[in-house]
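Listing 4. Sequential folding, example run.
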Amino acid sequence: MELKEPKTQEEFEGYYDLRWRILRYPWNQPRGSEKDSLEDMSIHLILTEEDKILGAGRVHFNSNDEAQVRYMAVEENQQGKGIGGKILSGLEERAKQRGTNYIVLNSRDTAVPFYIKKGYRIIGEAPTMFGTIKHSKMRKDL
């Protein structure tokens, strides 16, 4: 397995496709909803095996002190195998290299235990997505 930043058009297409299929399609959200205005100012990571993207994630910077992780996605048949943890660690490391003091994220309630195991703590409620997916705001000091 290789953790890397997507570089080629093909890698970026696969990266955004995974984000859409895992995070948007099940809730009937259109293609394009897996992106936002911060894509060009973010660090993107993919975990690949034999050129197949197994997982993806992104970190962007809200300030010099605060980074935010978004769009964590792992192929359904690969979940529970440590892929998300490797991506999250890579994003945290890149945030540390930029001098960030802490990371925030909005976690789906189903993913809260994963983030707690990785050292995050709940600091409040976050907006409910698509009217059904409850989220918690979480933070980890680096």
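-- end of first protein; second protein begins --
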Amino acid sequence: MPRSVNAVASRRRKKKIFKAAKGYFGARKNVYTVAKNAVEKAWSYAYRDRKAKKRAFRRLWIARINAAARLNGLSYSKFMHALKENNIDLNRKVLADMAMNQPETFKAIVDKVK
């Protein structure tokens, strides 16, 4: 009886890896085992950094809100606490955008919560 190897499935697996490794340098793009390792590493970095991106943006927003709040005489923590006390539900992304692009609106919010 001849040996059955299921070439269709293995070719499909390899094509998937080589497609993902397109543009890699050297053997990482055309040697299967090297490409597989490179792609798996890249996928793990991509998974990790999707989470890290959220943390990085939150840190950026907080820095921008803090800078704008201090220009108006409040620290970040006191400003955020005052927002909660006055039931103003604006998230950090919106507040940071406002602090950067519409400082007069941000100042109005700070004056309201003072």
